[in-house]
Amino acid sequence: MAHTHRIVVLAVDGVYPFELGIPSRVFGAANGRYEVLTCSVDGRPVRTNSDFSITVEHGPEALRTADTVVIPPFVTTAVTREVPQSVVEALASAAPGRRLVSICTGAFVLAAAGLLDGRPATTHWVVTDLFREWFPQVALNPDVLFIDDGDVLTSAGAASGLDVCLHIIRKDHGSEVANQVARMCIVPPWRDGGQAQYIQHPVPESKASGTAAARQWALENIHEPMTLTELAEHSHMSLRTFARRFTEEVGMSPGRWLIQQRVDRTRHLLETTDLPVDEIAGQVGFAGGTSLREHLHAAIGVSPLAYRRTFRGALSPDPLGTTAHTTLRTR
Predict the structure, then answer these.
(1) Best exposed site among 100, 123, 260, 303 by fewest CB in 10 Å?
(2) In which domain, by residue range, is 229 found?
(3) Which one has a higher pLDDT value, 195 or 142?
(4) What is the pLDDT of residues 74-93, one digit of tens each?
(5) Which element (helix H / strand E) includes 152?
(6) Are both 257 and 141 inside the same structural domain?
(7) First vs last Cα of the chain: how many Å apart?
């Protein structure tokens, strides 16, 4: 029988309940591929940042059986430069070779325990100045959703915890499983810069007074060149009105949105097919392979080859024998 990967979530006093539940919800939707346990440093109830405490079923002994340890965020003011000895000892007891993951201010625990020294890491942008002041030995990058540094992954605030968990599932089991989990959790399977990425579901029903009809037409014809004028015509608006309404409804300009959709489709095809880059460019509406490479690199900072290696490497050998270091930009 195949080994079930054990995720152990370490709840620290002051934990945020929403993020505490992310690992269980996401990994728990992977059809039995993961087992998720929650523990505290002493097995006793844990205070949250809200008006209630939580009771956990496990103490620090659970960490000794972990394949992956997740540290959810907690109230930063509760942190000192010296992490409580109980937390240090709990982390030290984790199984050798385990993977470490932090969400938001969980990175403070890893840094204070010396586990991020000399390594790239991220955390919530609100506390980056404080993090740099306390942990100058960490190569902090505040402009990313998450950083995958092999056996240590750190993520930014709140919903980026979903992103890093889905990323881990992609690495462990491939794109199709991660996409299924994303659909089960009603979240996009990939997100860049706070914007929802490509997900296999119908576009919202058109509203006569909005720009949804133009977006639906664009997605159905993403492989074709299209102009702002054509998009405006599908919404029966003037160019100026369409551009204004589109930005109000979507949060970005029509041109930026269209590029994002083409990058989304590019990622999907890189993850799920062996199509050459030039052929993918034709299917998603870029002028050619060079244009596709430029837009993909601008969006996520990697080449098509590096992206394909990262997200399909878990299922097939890397012909060059290299490991991609994944850093996804938020802007």
Answers:
(1) 303
(2) 198-316+326-331
(3) 142
(4) 887 655 566 677 887 888 88
(5) strand 152-155
(6) no
(7) 43
